[in-house]
Specification:
Luciferase, domain 3, GMP Synthetase, Chain A, domain 3, single chain, four-stranded parallel sheet, alpha/beta
Length: 556
């Protein structure tokens, strides 16, 4: 059983503020001559107390849900902590600018029966058009009046916050995170990083579990310093990430596979000059399937800057585990298993019979302390659904029945030599004539066959047609520059032929769409189930380029 130094985040904050009030915790990095914005432990504690008092003054009561719709910034951090101190339940959501963001805010507020929505500006389009339920009123952050903060005890088994899953449907599920499960996972995360880690850099969205737990709450709990900036600032110039790591001599950083791939795609000649990544003791990858080829390319590209293979730390996690399930321990190099694609189609882990039959799967490290993991597999050593349990695992979803022992993740994988390997998602499997096809494999082939295509730009979707005929289609996004250069028929044939060459099956059709046409989750991953629905209800047709889309087979 883990012995926690603090059984709640609030107690960790109070202890650090008393011990080292002027210690820097957060630096919001300013670009284009904007100053950095700092928060010390004293700032965090006093600011959170002010907001806690304001929540009392606003007439909310303990246990009320408070939706937090903020951009990346220090105000979000203070609002979140203020809710914890006041024993309100914060519910982070993405503050986007489109109708999809407004719909997400509305459905989350309805699902959790929120009493209040805090945001920078209630007139912002995503908030103003959200049509909040009657019991939920919006309030601007700077309108939060002060007051007298009354300390109150926090039961570790009470609900700390709700983390809504980034699922692709209109039926969001709020993962219940208790104070104890949060403190447990924060301690587990701190335990798998090098002992001398004190500084990290992040561009991850703060409302999402990976950014919130890993780069906002863990620094508060463990006493680290985090320099951060927004995801949009990363997208605009991805090399900023590595430049800030160099500038701050950071010891740690984390990103999904997309982040590593995007740096490589957008990197310009000479941009690596002056980088020094030798300070990194851990560079964690998680949140989505990890590409061995991307990680190999990233390491080889930046090895001259001092990046060590032992710093790369693949991990596996999900919101229902608060965040972390497994991660590679410090000092070990990532492990890769070459397995048979044909074997995976039969839920077996066997050696490949040829290069064409080979799939490289990266290990996601060892289980976090006090966790258990089982593989629901038809045979020993086989692939099956991952079932987890432990003190960091959620008791269930808001408004739904509490879970029983063991949480079935919906992820497929296997365990070998003490490491966890992820092969895919059950709901995304494409089953054709008894073969289990993994969409990620098909999507990787499509992207490789499309000139200039980036990672996460395709969706392979299984369909059942007339007379129960099983088939699949591939939707491939094209950038604006690709749209002007593509020969649509030739490109569709090339994609289809590449897929057929690799897996001996031909897609029913290949659909070419504009960039960013595919629906995505709040963490930026392609939402395949929503893409499938968009195909079925023809809403994806709005994004077809008429000269690029043609119904029917790709190959004559």
């Amino acid at each position: 059983m883990i012995r926690l130094p603090f059984d709640t985040l609030a107690r960790a904050l109070q202890a650090h503020a008393a011990r080292a009030p002027e210690q820097l915790v957060f630096r919001r990095k300013g670009f284009r001559n904007k100053p950095d914005e700092m928060l010390t432990f004293s700032d965090l504690h006093q600011g959170a107390q002010r907001i806690a008092a304001a929540l009392d003054a606003e007439g909310t009561v303990e246990g009320d849900r408070v939706v937090l719709a903020y951009p990346t910034g220090n105000d979000f951090i203070l609002a979140f902590l203020g809710c914890l101190l006041a024993r309100r339940i914060p519910v982070p959501v993405n503050l986007g600018k489109d109708a999809r963001s407004a719909g997400r805010i509305r459905t989350v507020a309805q699902d959790c029966d929120a009493a209040l929505l805090l945001c920078p500006d209630p007139a912002a389009p995503a908030v103003a058009s959200a049509q909040l339920p009657g019991g939920c009123r919006p309030l601007a952050h700077d309108r939060l009046a002060g007051g007298v903060y009354t300390p109150r005890p926090i039961d570790p088994d009470d609900i700390a916050f709700l983390q809504y899953t980034s699922g692709s449907t209109g039926d969001p599920k709020g993962v219940i995170v208790t104070h104890r499960s949060l403190a447990t996972n924060l301690h587990q995360i701190a335990s798998v990083v090098p002992a001398d880690l004190t500084r990290i850099v992040s561009w991850l969205p703060q409302f999402h579990d990976m950014g919130l737990i890993g780069t906002v709450l863990t620094p508060i709990y463990a006493g680290w310093e985090c320099t951060y900036f927004s995801p949009m600032e990363f997208v605009q110039r991805p090399m900023r990430w590595l430049q800030v790591i160099t500038e701050t001599r950071a010891h740690g950083a984390v990103a999904p596979n997309f982040g590593f791939s995007y740096v490589l795609e957008r990197m310009k000649e000479g941009e690596a000059e002056g980088l020094d990544l030798s300070s990194l003791g851990i560079l964690m990858s998680g949140s989505e399937p990890i590409s061995v080829s991307v990680m190999d390319r990233f390491l080889s590209t930046f090895a001259p800057t001092g990046l060590r293979a032992s710093a790369l730390a693949p991990s596996y996690g999900l919101a229902e585990a608060t965040l972390l399930v497994s991660a590679l321990r410090p000092g070990l190099e990532p492990s890769v298993q070459d397995v048979s694609l044909a074997g995976l189609e039969r839920d077996q882990v066997v050696a490949p019979g040829s290069d064409r039959d080979r799939r490289r799967v990266m290990g996601c490290g060892q289980l976090a302390d006090d966790m258990t993991l089982q593989i629901a597999a038809p045979a020993p050593g086989g692939v099956g659904e991952i079932v987890i349990d432990g003190p960091n695992v959620s008791p269930g979803y808001w408004g739904r029945r509490p879970r029983k022992a063991g949480f079935a993740t919906g992820d497929l994988g296997f365990v070998m030599d003490g490491q966890v390997y992820i092969t895919g998602r059950i709901k995304d499997l494409i089953v054709i004539r008894g073969r289990n096809l993994y969409p990620t494999d098909i999507e990787a082939i499509s992207q490789a066959a499309t000139p200039g295509a980036g990672a996460n730009s395709a969706a392979a979707i299984g369909l059942t047609g007339a007379e129960a005929r099983e088939s699949f289609v591939v939707v491939q996004e094209l950038s604006a520059s690709q749209l002007g250069q593509a020969d649509p028929d030739a490109l569709r044939r090339a994609i289809a032929q590449s897929i057929c060459d690799e897996i001996d099956l031909l897609p029913d059709t290949v659909i070419l769409v504009r960039s960013n046409a595919l629906p995505r989750t709040t963490s930026g991953k392609v939402a395949r189930s929503a893409a499938r629905q968009a195909l079925l209800d023809h809403s994806l047709r709005d994004h077809f380029n008429p000269t690029l889309f043609e119904k029917g087979p790709c190959l004559a």
